[in-house]
Structures are given as structure tokens and as C-alpha cells.
User: What shape does this take?
Amino acid sequence: MENTQTTAPSPFSPTYFHGTRADLQPGDLIQTGINSNYGKQNKAKYIYLTATLDAAIWGAELALGEGRERIYLVEATGPLEDDPNVTDKKFPGNPTRSYRSKHPFKVVGEVTVWSSHPAAQVKAMKEALAKLKDQGIEAIED
Assistant: This one.
């Protein structure tokens, strides 16, 4: 008997997290070309997401702007690659499970209950990033 079964795409897409201060709604797309939340705030060539809540919390806590810190559940609409800003530079491998893409991310929900890092830890991280900026080192490699 011939096997006529074809592999159909799964109805479930992996869901990732995106930390920011932007006010978004389900169905919105997070895209490249918007001013980055980091560094010199250049137009973003890539957008970033993570498979860990902790990394998304850092994204929200370190994002520039006055809006409240938010963490969205997002689905990638195209291929992902390891985030070179942390993979094998700051951490061996990709333990933060952080990725980037040139393709939009679709907002599918928001995580509304999460715990911030201790204020002293956030302050230390922001000071370290400011020091790097003063040295001319960009925190985001685009």
C-alpha cells in the first residue's frame, strides 16, 4: 500500500517572549525599521525575542522610554537566528535562548504577572551598559 500521507504544518507555532515598553495589542506586528530601544536608537535591522521569561524581563527593564515595562507573547513569522549579542560572547552557547530575525513577530498575548529583577541588579546592569556606551561599545550588534 502506498503512503499518501503528507506532512501538514502543525496548527501550533512556538510562542516566544518580547520585552519592551511599547504598548501593543494582540495581532500587532513588531517589525524592523522602528527606532531601537537600545544604544543609539538607530532604525532596527533586526528584532529580538527569547524563549525564556527571564531574558524577556531584562528586555523590558532595559528598554528606553517612559512607558511601563511589558512582556508580550509573540510568534515568529520567519526564520530566527541566535542573538549574537549574547550567544558565545557573554554566555557560552545560547542559554538565554535569545534569537533575532528580520521578519515580523506577531503579538499573540501579554504576560501580565511577572517579577522584576532586584532594583540594585537593574541599576548595576544599566550602569554597565552606560559605561560601555561611554567607551563607544554598542550593546546591540546589528
In short: The chain has a mean pLDDT of 82. Strands lie at 16-20, 29-30, 47-50, 70-76, 81-82, 98-101, 105-111. The two ends are 53 Å apart (CA to CA). The longest helix spans residues 119-134.
